[in-house]
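Kindly go through one protein, given below as sequence and C-alpha cells. The question is how this chain folds according to its C-alpha cells.

***
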Amino acid sequence: MTYENFKTDLDADGIFTVTWDMPDRSMNVLSGSSMKDLGAIIEKVANDDAIKGMVLTSGKAAFGAGADLSEMGSSAGSSTGELTKEQKLKKQYDSHMGFTHLLRTLETCGKPVAAAINGLAMGGCLEVTLACHYRVAVDNDAIQLGLPEAKVGLLPGGGGTQRLPRLIGAADALPLLLQGKSLRPRKAAEMGVIHKIVPAGQLISEAKRWIKEEGDAEQPWDKKGFKIPGGTPYDKGNGTTFVVGNALLRKTTYGNYPAQTNIMKCVYEGTQVPIDAGLRIEARYFIDLLNRPESKVMIRSLFLSMQELNKGARRPAVEEKFKVKKLGMLGAGMMGAGIAYVSAKVGMEVVLIDASQEGADKGKAYSTNLLDKAIAKGRSTEEEKEALLGRINATTDYEALKDCDLIIEAVFEDRKVKAEVTQKAEAILSDDAVFGSNTSTLPITGLSEASSRPANFIGIHFFSPVDRMPLVEIILGKDTSDETLAKAMDYVAQIKKTPIVVNDSRGFYTSRCFGTYVSEGVEMLAEGITPALVDNVGRMTGMPRGPLELSDDVALDLAHRVRTQTKKDLGDKYIATAADPLMEKMVVDHGRLGRKNGKGFYDYPEGGKKHLWPGLADLVTPTVTRSNPEMVEGLKKRLLYRQAIEAARCFEEKVVTDVRDADVGSIIGWGFAPYTGGPLSLIDTVGTKAFVEACDTFADDLGERFRPCQLLRDMAETDDTFYNRFNPKAAMATAAE
C-alpha cells in the first residue's frame, strides 16, 4: 500500500520503517492528510503479523514542525454554519479526540514503536514521538525539541500535557509546557524526555536494535503500579509545585493568557486520573482555548501572518531575487555594530566604518563579545568566531565600500551628519547599490534629498539589540523604487528577520505608536497617579515593561526635545498637557535624563537595584494612591486603547497599509500585548462600535488624543472589522485579477 505522506519499508527482521516525507513541503506537519495516512499505518502495524515493530523517522532535515496551524487557524474562534454553540463544541471535541485516539492507538497497538528523531521536532510532531515507546535522537546541538503551543495561545493538545508529566514529573514538565521552552537533544535525554542520543549515522540502527533486543510495546503509564515521577498533586512535597506555580503564573501573565491557566489545570487534574481520563480533560481545555478570542488572534498574528510576512507577502513580485554579498555599515555604535554582526553571521562581507579607528574597532569588538558568550554556552566555536570576525573589516576608509551591494547608515540622528555620510558613500558606490537609513524618526523622503539616486534610497529600521530583536521596519520614501524595496526585503530575509513595510512619516509606524504608550504613562503620572501604579498597570496590560521604565530607557531629554520641537512646529495648534511642565522640571530643573545618566523617574545606583526617585512626590502631588479592580481595568484600557487609536490613524493615513504589518510589527517591534494579537486585532475583538464609544468617553475626560479618526467612525456604523474590510488575501486576489 502506498501513502501520500509516508514511505515504508519492511526488512528481513520484520521491522517496519516508516519515513515521514510530505510532498511539496519543506517540513512535515500534522495535517488532515498526514493523520489519515498515519491512522492507516498504525492499523497495518497492529494487524500484520509479519511486522514485529515499527521505526518512525523523517525523510526531511527536520522531524516535524507541529500542527498545520493554517488548518487550525481557520476553525479557531470561528462559527460553524447553523450549529448551536453546544453542537459546535461537540463537533470540535469529537474531531480533536480523533487525533487523541490516533496517538493512543499507536502506543497500545501491541508492537514496539521507536521514534528516530533526526531533526527539529516541535509541537504535535513531538507529541507523536511521546506516544512512541522509545525515542532516540541525533546528537546535534542545533536540533530543538519542544512544545511551543503556549506561545500562540494554545496548549499541547496531542497528549503533551499528560505524557510529559508522566515521563519527567509535573515539576520539570510545567516550565516546558507553560513557557513553550525548547530543549537540545542532550538536555532532553538528561531530563528523560528522550531515551538516547547517537551520531546521525547510527540513528535508524539504534532504533532497530532497541526493537530487536529490548522492544517493549507498553508505555510506563499503562503498566500496573505505575507512579508519576514526583507524585500526584496531593502527594507529599508535590503540592508546592502547583501552589508556587500558580503564584508565579499570576505574577508573569497577570491573567491575560488563558492558555497557561488551562495548561496548569490539565496537568493538575490530569495527573490525578488514569491516562485516558487525563486525555479527555486535556481535550476539553484545548477546545475551550480554541474558542477564545486570544487564541484566534495569537494564531493569526504570531503564526499565520508572521509566516506570510517572512515568506515575502509584501515583496514586489516582479523583481529578481537579490543576495547581499558585501554590506557597507556606516556608524559603529551599538546599532551599527549589531547590524554588522547579524550580517556577517549569515556569511556577508561587512565593511564597518566609523569616524575614528578606535570607534570602528569598538564596534567590531561587539561581535567578539557576542561570540565569546555563545562559545561559553556551547553554541559556537573558536573556528566559527574567527571566520565571522574575519568577514568584518573595521575601518575609517570609505574607499573600502567599493563593490558593496547595500549600504546601511546608523550614524547620529542629525540630518546634516546623515547627508554627509550619504554623499561620501555614494561617491564610491555602483549605480545599482541600495542605500538604507536606520533612522527611527527622520522622514526618509527628506533624508533622500542628500542622495543623487533617491530611487535607491530606503529606510531600514532595526530594533535594539539587533541580534535579539526579530523585526525590521522598511520605510518607503516618495521616490523609492519597487526594485529597491524588493532588494531591502531580500536582505532582511537573508539575515533571518521579519520585515514590515510602511510609508514615510515622522516616527513611521513603530516609533510613532510606541511613543503613545510612554507619553500616556507620563500623562498619568502628571495627573497624580502614583508612579508605582502607573508602571504596574503597564505591565498588567501585557506590555513588557512599565511606561516610566521605558521612558527612562529611551531618554527623558530626547522626549523633552521632541515635545519642544512639536510645540514650535504646531504653534497655536499645539495642545499642552499636564506632562509638559513635569518633563520641563525633570530634564531642565533637575537634570534627570533617564537611565543614561542614572537619574530619571527611577534612580539607578551603581551596583544596586533601581528604584523610583523619591523626589517625584515633590514634583507631582499624588491624588490617586490606592486602586481597585475597576480603576485598574480602566487604566489598562487607557494605555492599550491609546496605542490602538494611533495604529488606526496610521492606517487611515496610509502610513501602514497591511493589517499584518500593523499587528505583527506591534508585537515583535515594541512589545504590544501579544494576547491581543496586535492593536488592530484588539479593536476587532472589542468591536469597532464599542471601541469608538469608549474612546470618545476617554477623549471627553482626558483630551483629543483619544478622539477616534474618521476611518474608525465609518467602520463603527456597521461594526466592521479591519480584517474584514482590509483582508490582505482578498486584496491580493483582486490585484492578481
Observations:
- DSSP finds 31 helices and 19 strands in the chain.
- The chain has three domains: 6-291, 326-505, 511-550+563-588+623-725.
- Residues 270 and 277 are 7 Å apart (CA to CA).
